[in-house]
Amino acid sequence: MHELTQHTAQMLNIGRQTVRKNPFLVNETGTTNTKGDRTIEMDVKIEIAFLEYIRRNKLPVWVYSEEIGIVKPHPKPDFLVTFDPLDGSDNYILGQGLLPFGSLIAFYHGSKPRLKDVVAAGAIEYTTNRLYLFDNGQTTDENGNKVQLRNNWELDQKTPVYLETYAKGYEKYRSVGSRLFVKNQGALVSSLIYVLGNSAAAMGGIAIKSEEVGAIYALISGAGGLVISSMGNGIQNLALDHNRKYDVLAGDKSTVKLMAKMLG
C-alpha cells in the first residue's frame, strides 16, 4: 500500500472517531468557508483533526480544505492534499443518525496538479460506516478487497443514478429521468459510496467542488468506471482549480455514456 494511502486511511478513521465521540456538534460557528457556506462545529472539528495529523506526521504537503482554504504546513511540499471534512452537513444537522454524510480526501502529486495526478484518495460515509480507498491505481474497501463496478445494468427506469439537484440540477437532469431512476440523498459522498458499493449505476453533479472531484475521479476510475463531463469529454487533464466547479458523470461505463448522450 502506498504510504499516502495509509495516511488517507488513518485520516478517515480519525474522522470516524471524531464523529462517534462528538455526535451533535451542529451549532453554526458564525463564520463561512471558502465557498461561502456557513460552517458548523463538526466541520471545524474534523478539519482541525486532519490538519493536526498532517502536521504531527510532517507530511510533505500543502493543504486545501473547504473550510479555510490553502494551508502550507511544509516548506518544500511534494504533494497537495484536498479534503472536504464534512460533506452533507445539512444531513448531519437534520438526519438524526439516518441521513448520509461523510469526508473525502485526495492527495495529488505536485502543487499545481491535474485531476489525473491523484496518487491516493479515500471517502467515508459515516452513517453506513463504509470506507473506500484508491491505492496504486486500484480502488479497494478498507479491508483491501478490490472493488469492481457492476457492468450489467439494464438501463431502464429501475436503474438508480444519484445526481446532485442543486445549482440548476433539476433542470439539467430532467431528461435523464425519462430513462433512468434519478435519486438524491443530499450528500455527494453518499452517491459515491452507493456507486462503489454497486447499489447504484452512476452519479453526477454540475457543480462539484475542487475538494471533492479528485476523490470521485480516482475512486471511480480505480474501480473500472468512467468519469467524464455531461458533454462526454474526459476530465482527467483538467487542472485542479479551487475557483471553479466541475461538471461530472461517473460510474458504470454504459450508464455514464447513455447519460452523456442524453445531456450532450
CATH architecture title of the largest domain: 2-Layer Sandwich
| Proportion in β-strands | 25-35%
Helical/strand content category: alpha+beta
Mean pLDDT: 93
What is the makeup of the main sheet? 7 strands, mixed
Oligomer: single chain
Stretches where pLDDT falls below 50 for ≥5 residues?
A: none
How large is the radius of gyration?
17 Å
Measured between the Cα atoms of the first and last residue, the distance is 39 Å
Domain count: the total is 2
Helix-residue proportion: 25-40%
Shape: globular
Strand/helix succession: HEEHEEEHEEEEEHEHEHEEH
- The CATH superfamily label of the largest domain reads Fructose-1,6-Bisphosphatase, subunit A, domain 1
Count of helix runs? 7
How is the largest sheet built, in terms of strand order? 4-3-5-6-7-8-9
Task: Explain what the structure shows.
There is one protein chain. The chain has two domains: 3-141, Fructose-1,6-Bisphosphatase, subunit A, domain 1 (Fructose-1,6-Bisphosphatase, Chain A, domain 1), CATH 3.30.540; 160-263, D-Maltodextrin-Binding Protein, domain 2. The strands form three sheets. A seven-stranded mixed β-sheet has the order 4-3-5-6-7-8-9, with helices on both faces. The protein has helices at 3-21, 41-56, 89-94, 169-172, 188-196, 210-221, 253-263, and strands at 28-32, 38-40, 61-65, 69-71, 79-87, 102-109, 118-125, 130-135, 138-141, 160-163, 181-183, 202-208, 226-228, 246-251. The chain is α+β, with helices and mostly antiparallel strands and 264 residues long. A hairpin with a 5-residue loop joins β1 (28-32) and β2 (38-40).
